[in-house]
Amino acid sequence: MSDMQTVEFREALRQALDEEMTRDERVFIMGEEVAEYNGAYKVTKGLLDKWGPKRVIDTPISELGFIGAGIGAAMTGLRPVVEVMSFNFSFVAADQIISNAGKMYYMTGNRYSVPMVIRGPNGAAAQVSSQHSHCVEAIYGNLPGLIIVAPSNPYDAKGLLKSSIRSNNPVLFLEAELSYGDKMEIPTKEYLVPIGKAKVVIEGKDLTIVSHSRMVNMCRTVVQELAKQGIKAELIDLRTIKPLDIATVAASVRKTNRCVLVEEGHYFAGICAEVGFEIMQICFDYLDAPIERVCQRETPMPYSKILEKETLPTVPRILAAAHRTLR
Amino acid sequence: MLLIRNFEVRAEAAYLQGKIGGFFHSYIGQEAIQTALLQVLGKNHWYVTTYRCHALALLLGATPNELMAELFGRTTGNAKGRGGSMHFYTDRLLGGFGIVGGQIPVATGAAFSIKYQDKQGEIAVCFLGDGAVAQGAFHESLNLASLWNLPCLYVIENNQWGMGTAVERAVSIERLAEDLAPAYKMKGYTFDGMDYFHCYEGFKHVFNEMLETGRPVIVEAVTERFKGHSISDPGLYRTKDELKASMTRDPVLIMKQALIEAKLLNEESYKKMDQAEKEKVLAALEYAEKSPWPDPSTLEEDVFAPENGVAS
Q: What are the boundaries of each domain within chain B?
């Protein structure tokens, strides 16, 4: 048997779920269409057949109810993995995520923890308009007590989901609808990817580009374009938004002295605003140019594909930002 | 009941002296309900309640000392001084929840756990106020609990007021449990929440039924709080006569009268009992007063539970 396998993003996630369900009988999956329908995006395909309805549970369209129930189950000894069909639907359960999951361990004086994963697609898909396209990491990132993970590729997705299920804390695990079909060679043997560790995915010396989730792939194209122009950019994938691995970012910026931050979500109080501030604080003397950022413009997501493309980060916008730092 | 009454009276006095801060929601007037329920069920279930949580914590075994220290914001407090009046816990009490209705899905999840782990004889008990009946979280929880056959007992303590809004101005049905339950294929009951014995008999019936069916049940315990919604509420929405009338049905006095009539109690033994509970609470005040404040250097500890090296 080969020690490597080529899998889609969704299959990497499915393997993580299946392996962790094998490892720990307290782990169960619940969400809309996860069981009989085999998952809205087929992440849970085949899991009902294998594990049965006790551990793979279809819910009604009732996010407030079932995310809250997941928190109660987590507080009383289980390890729920709750799928949201879109993280935009998590907003109707915001009270449960914000006031209960995120605050519980601290508020109870360490009496109750919430070992629970909420996972599903985040951000834009293809022309699904404003109410299905919002990026949630900046919103939830403002709340102490929540771990936020956002992998960009199948390898990290599998290893990070396994770590998230084993975590003793509430984890928001952000996927991307447009990435579920992405293929990659990953090990057949079990592995974990640690939470809270960014990764230098391409090494360079001229500037640092920092991104996460689906935008990392767009940044790869940018790095290739810059290389054609003789510019060696270093690309960092944050992988975990919170806790933020600022050390890896800072080490790179101290080397390159220039930095472009890229995120799919909006400018105002976004992840880039936080990362940029932390770089300014600890790398101020190393910066040879102002930090640049490319984010979603300050609009709700429009439907028309022309406008949709215009509001999201694009390769030309990131390239222009890179060149501004090199002036 | 006397411990609860004494605790609330003395804690309120300490609040007015400036020793306790934040919100403070008194359980005075409602004591019969949770006392009777605990007497029937015992501690070995999952319990969830509202911010009016002092009584349930005491009934589930939290000491007056640790609770008073929590109210005083001390490091020896029930939640290390991080929770305050609305967030009390025990090994069986999941809280103490500050958002109206926010506790209901959590209790439903605790019932899910009991079923998943096949814990025979256990149920989850969720207390909520009449105000929470209007919250969507209640509807979603009832639907899930009925759909999935979860052993969750929802007890609506109808104290007539959602802060200053009378229940009939907030909820479109009259009998909160009995009118609502059939829509979810559940059973609904109404108890006299001022009468310990009525509650006791009622909860006994409901608990036995739940052990048999494994199904959720809704109970409305009709009561009236004798204090404002919280300590800062002067209660101008009800007249003094109305309050006086409801206080003639004080649950402590009703129980005392019944026990005297049954010759199980006399004025003297009652006074002795009351004095004993009062002394416990006075000792708790002293304990809280003498307890150390939290060390500011611990402020940022415990935002996350330890990972035991597994995940990171």
A: 2-289
Residue A63 is among the residues annotated as catalytic for this protein: yes
Kindly identify which residue of chain A lies nearest to residue B306, measuring between CA atoms: A168
B2-289 falls under which CATH superfamily?
Answer: Thiamin diphosphate (ThDP)-binding fold, Pyr/PP domains (3.40.50.970)
Convert the pLDDT of each residue in A203-250 to its tens digit. Answer: 999 999 999 999 999 999 999 999 999 999 999 999 999 999 999 999
Beta bridge partners of A296: A266
Report the gap between the CA of B61 and the closest CA in chain A (Å): 15
Architecture of domain A199-326: 3-Layer(aba) Sandwich (3.40)
- The CATH classification of domain A4-187, taken from the options 3.40.50.1580, 3.30.930.10, 3.20.20.150, 3.40.50.970: 3.40.50.970
pLDDT in tens, B200-232: 999 999 999 999 999 999 999 999 988 888 888
Give the SS3 label for residue A35.
coil
Give yes or no for a contact between B281 and B3, defined as CB atoms under 8 angstroms apart: yes
pTM: 0.96
Cβ-based contacts of A191 with chain B (< 8 Å): none
Angle of the A271-283 helix axis to the A246-256 helix axis, nearest 10: 60
Contact across the interface for B137 and A65, Cβ inside 8 Å: yes
Q: Does B108 contact A163 at a Cβ distance shorter than 8 Å? A: no
* C-alpha neighbours within 13 Å on the C-beta side of residue A131: 3
E strands, A140-212, are: 147-149, 171-175, 183-187, 199-202, 207-211
Interface probe with A: pick from B75, B115, B122, B304, most Cβ of A within 10 Å: B304
- For chain A, residues classed under CATH 3.40.50.920 are 199-326
Q: Does B167 touch chain A (CB under 8 A)?
A: no
pLDDT in tens, B54-111: 999 999 999 999 999 999 999 999 999 999 999 999 999 999 999 999 999 999 999 9
* A and B: number of Cβ contacts within 8 A: 159
The question of whether A175 is a catalytic residue gets the answer no
**Over chain A, what is the mean pLDDT?**
97
Given this model, what pLDDT does residue B312 score?
Answer: 46
For the stretch A258-288, pLDDT in tens is 999 999 999 999 999 999 999 999 999 999 9
Residues of chain A by 3-state class (helix, strand, coil), percent to 5? 40, 20, 40
